[in-house]
Each structure stands twice: as C-alpha cells, then as structure tokens.
C-alpha cells in the first residue's frame, strides 16, 4: 500500500496543508505525526478557507480519515474548536477523526509558562505563545498529561496537583486555574470531543489498518525548525522530519516517498539565522503578493531568495525523495531571480552546511537567473531544472495558487509549454 510523508523543506509555511489536501483524495488515512497548534495549515473547500492548526488536512467532504499521532502535543480547546468549525459545514465530520490516547496535552499553564519564559529571555526566540515548548518540556521531564489520563480521574488529579506545586514554586505563584478547576475543564473538553464523534484510538490498535491501506503522513513546520537539526535554539520543540512517523509505529524504510515542500523563494517567521534574507523593496513586494503573514500568528514573514545549501541540508537530513514547489507565481514578472547557491563559511565555500551552527555564520553566494512572465514560461521550467540539478532531487508537482486544485505535475506543465 502507498505510504507518503509530506514535510517542510525550509523554515515552515511552505504550503504543506494545501499539498496534503491535494494528495488526500488518493489516500484512506491522513496522519499528522508531530507538532501542535503553532502550525497553521490552510486549505480551501470550494471558495471557503479553513485553517487547521491540529487537524490533519483531509478532504472534509471526501472518504479519507484523519489521525492525530502521539508525536503531537494537543490543545483540546483548539481541537474542539476546529472540529466544530468544520462540523457547521460538514455535519458529522468529527467521526472522520481519531486521536491517539498517548498524545500529550497543551494546558493553559503551558501557555502562561510560554509567555513568562519569552519575557525572561535576553534574546527572545519568537515563540508563538501557544504553549508548545513547555508542553514538550513537561513531556521530557515526566510531568506531562496524556489524553489517556483524562479517562482516569484519580490519576489526572494527582498528576495535575504534582505539576501545580512544581510550577507555582518555579514561577512564584504566577499561574492561574488551580488543579481541580483545570481537571474539570479538561474533562468537559474531552466530553465535547467525544460528542462531536472524534474517536480515541491508539496506534497499536490501528497498526493493522494502517498497514493494509494507504497512508499520507503530514508533518509540521520545516526541517530547518527541527529540534535536533534545525537552527537551534530558534526552532520548534518537536520533530519536523520524516522520521517522526515512528510515533505512529512506522519506520522511514516503510515510506514510498518523502515529499519536501518548498517555496520558489524562502520565508521565515520569528527570530534566528536566515542567510538569504532580503530587506529590499523587491522583498516587500514578494511579501505582499504572496500574502506572507503567519497563518497562526499573523506576523509578517521574513523574505529571502531560494536557499539551495539549506535545501540540500534538508534533503539529506530528512531523506527527501521528491520536491513540491509552491508560490512560483508570486515571482511572476521579475526580470531576474536571485538564488543562493552556496555559503562562504570561515573563508571556505561550501555547498552544504555541516552543522546547524553553520547557518549562523554563513555568507550567501548568489547566482542570477532569468525571471518568468508566468509559470507557463520556459524560464520557469529552466528554474526548476536548475534546482533539480543542484539538489539532486526531482520536482514532481507545482503549486501555483492557494486553492486545492491549483496544482499540476511537472510533466503536465512541460506538455503545456
């Protein structure tokens, strides 16, 4: 059976949600395997826009189903709200989703902690304030709350009381909502989720089903924001790479394809190194034409030219076997397009950074390529061919607009030129 993972090949915001939504028609299960509500995946059904922060980007009116895997951290309030929004237009859609009881929960305490920590930092990370980092921190320090704990009221209360004491001591009593009140809130959110038809089912119980059908794995953010291999500390707190499918019981060796999604240029939200960043009027024009504002935060995204060393790094780290290029139409009409082809690091020109630290000290080396009028222009085909030759990974699909159906294969594009 077909198994494909879709991951971000840059610093996130590449358009993964739209790509997953496009591919979803060919898969029975769409599985989100990492991240939390700090990710914003935008999809369109007809002319109506939906932003999923937690839900896998299934086709709400299709036959496919969505699964939220144990590598995620889930804000139940946000999850309930997303299902309710879809249910207004697609009654009963909640029954298309299942959540692993092993997922860790993002609590109101985590959001408070996120804001307190960011305010304390001499150099802010640029966190979204959604509580993702503190939730993953509690997971690692063994203070976290899992969804399954909500089905054992005694254990839930004990764990919340223990966590409350620790947080109140560390943060000098700055947390609101005592344990008993929080336990009641979580139980109500659990009940509402079940009322909406969402199932609580573990990956162990789903193992046979997943292996007997087609599965599309949906990643969050991008490889360069990965906790282990991204531009640390300016990263997210979970896995952004294809190996995150292990949280659903799969190995990357079981994948038929790892599709990396990239923009025809590069963007980044928040702080951290960005070697190919451009702050000219051209970049401002790209930001406005591309509507480059965060789906989760609304913050303006930083704009840069396509960064091939970073893309090569992502391809190696996440084992990319194909590429999907998005937003090439945003660059329509430019006479020339710059591409960062290598880095100068300590006086040495390198095609691929050796470590994540190299991004902090890299000086970009550029080439200029001819621009294109539209994505049907032969110069755009040459641009894609240049990327493929430089990265040694084929581009298979092109996205040229925000709507789900505004995609085509590279071969079809060639036939139309």
From TrEMBL:
Pathway: Purine metabolism; AMP biosynthesis via de novo pathway; AMP from IMP: step 1/2. Its cofactor is Mg(2+). InterPro entries: Adenylosuccin_syn_GTP-bd (IPR018220), Adenylosuccin_syn_Lys_AS (IPR033128), Adenylosuccinate_synth_dom1 (IPR042109), Adenylosuccinate_synth_dom2 (IPR042110), Adenylosuccinate_synth_dom3 (IPR042111), Adenylosuccinate_synthetase (IPR001114), P-loop_NTPase (IPR027417). The keyword Nucleotide-binding applies. Signal peptide: none annotated. It is found in: Cytoplasm. Gene3D superfamilies: Adenylosuccinate Synthetase, subunit A, domain 1 (3.40.440.10), Adenylosuccinate Synthetase, subunit A, domain 2 (1.10.300.10), Adenylosuccinate Synthetase, subunit A, domain 3 (3.90.170.10). Substrate binds at residues 295-301. This is Adenylosuccinate synthetase. It comes from Candidatus Cryosericum septentrionale.
């Amino acid at each position: 059976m077909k198994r494909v993972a879709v991951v971000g090949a840059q610093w996130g915001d590449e358009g993964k949600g739209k790509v997953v939504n496009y591919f979803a028609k060919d898969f029975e299960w769409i599985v989100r395997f990492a991240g939390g509500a700090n990710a914003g995946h935008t999809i369109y059904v007809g002319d109506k826009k939906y932003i999923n922060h937690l839900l896998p980007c299934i086709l709400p009116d299709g036959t496919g189903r969505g699964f939220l895997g144990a590598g995620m951290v889930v804000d139940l309030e946000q999850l309930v709200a997303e299902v309710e929004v879809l249910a207004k237009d697609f009654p009963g859609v909640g029954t298309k989703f299942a959540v692993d009881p092993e997922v860790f929960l993002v609590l109101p305490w985590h959001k408070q902690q996120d804001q307190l920590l960011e305010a304390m930092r001499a150099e802010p990370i640029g966190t979204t304030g959604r509580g993702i980092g503190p939730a993953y921190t509690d997971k690692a320090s063994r203070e976290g709350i899992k969804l399954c704990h909500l089905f054992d009221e005694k254990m839930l209360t004990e764990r919340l009381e223990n966590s409350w004491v620790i947080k109140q001591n560390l943060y000098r009593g700055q947390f609101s909502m005592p344990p008993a009140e929080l336990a009641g809130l979580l139980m109500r959110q659990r009940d509402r989720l079940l009322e909406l038809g969402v199932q609580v089912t573990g990956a162990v119980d789903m193992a046979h089903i997943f292996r007997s059908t087609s599965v599309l794995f949906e990643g969050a953010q991008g490889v360069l924001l990965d906790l282990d291999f991204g531009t640390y500390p300016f990263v997210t707190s979970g896995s952004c790479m294809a190996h995150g499918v292990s949280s659903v019981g799969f190995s990357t060796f079981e994948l038929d394809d790892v599709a990396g999604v990239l923009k025809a240029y590069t963007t980044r939200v928040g702080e951290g190194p960005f070697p190919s960043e451009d702050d000219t009027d051209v970049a401002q024009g790209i930001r406005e034409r591309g509507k480059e504002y965060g789906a989760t935060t609304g913050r303006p995204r930083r704009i840069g030219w396509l960064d091939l060393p970073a893309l090569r790094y992502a391809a190696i780290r996440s084992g990319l076997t194909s590429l999907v290029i998005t937003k090439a139409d945003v660059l329509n009409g430019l006479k020339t397009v710059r591409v960062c082809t290598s880095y100068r690091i300590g006086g040495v020109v390198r095609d691929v950074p050796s470590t994540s630290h190299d991004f902090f000290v890299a000086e970009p080396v550029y080439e200029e390529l001819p621009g294109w009028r539209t994505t049907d222009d032969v110069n755009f085909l040459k641009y894609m061919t240049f990327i493929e030759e430089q990265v040694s990974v084929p581009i298979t699909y092109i996205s040229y607009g925000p709507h789900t159906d505004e995609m085509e294969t590279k071969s079809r594009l060639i036939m139309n030129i």
